[in-house]
């Protein structure tokens, strides 16, 4: 049974920090690209950050570059999102995503249930 369980969300003041975690189980975590997405009320879900299966390469949305850091621990089947210098516009539900695309076109894609991040004074 595939599971992605996010944790670490909450209420934080502008300028503060949070660290999100996503614990994975039920699939070969080390083979998957892992990503964090977010969705604010009334807006479409957007990619925040992604990290390759080995952790060598990362990619960030322009709006979070320099403030957020994605990392992974393949021994613990966990991906993290360190969020610093948080702004009110970072308020959203944050989702963990696992993605694997095989030669031939088969794709495996899983989502977590999301964790709320609220940035407000």
What this model shows, in words?
The protein has 121 residues and is an all-beta fold. Helices cover 0% and strands 53% of the residues. The chain contains no helices and eleven strands. It has strands at 3-7, 10-12, 18-25, 33-39, 46-51, 58-60, 68-73, 78-83, 92-101, 107-111, 115-119. Strands 2, 4, 5, 6, 9, 10 and 11 form a seven-stranded mixed sheet that branches. A four-stranded antiparallel sheet has the order 1-3-8-7, with no helix packed on it. The termini are far apart. The model has no long low-confidence stretch (mean pLDDT 97).
Largest sheet entry: 7 strands, mixed
Name the average pLDDT. 97
Along the chain, the helix and strand elements come as EEEEEEEEEEE
How many individual helices?
A: 0
The N- to C-terminal Cα distance equals 40 Å
The helix content is under 10%
Strand content: over 45%
Low-confidence stretches: none
> Mind telling me the C-alpha Rg?
14 Å
What does the overall shape look like? globular
Number of strands: 11
Backbone structural class: mainly beta
List keywords for this structure.
121 residues, 53% strand
């Amino acid at each position: 049974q595939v599971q992605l369980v996010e944790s670490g969300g909450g209420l934080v003041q502008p300028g503060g920090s949070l660290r999100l975690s996503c614990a994975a189980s039920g699939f070969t975590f080390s083979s998957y690209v892992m990503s964090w997405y977010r969705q604010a009320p009334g807006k479409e879900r957007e990619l925040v950050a992604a990290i390759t299966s080995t952790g060598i390469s990362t990619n960030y949305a322009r709006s979070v570059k320099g403030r957020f850091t994605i990392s992974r621990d393949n021994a613990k089947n966990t991906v993290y999102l360190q969020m610093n210098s948080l702004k009110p516009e970072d308020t959203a539900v944050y989702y963990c995503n696992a993605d694997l695309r095989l030669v031939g076109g088969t794709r495996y894609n899983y989502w977590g249930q999301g964790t709320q991040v609220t940035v407000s004074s």
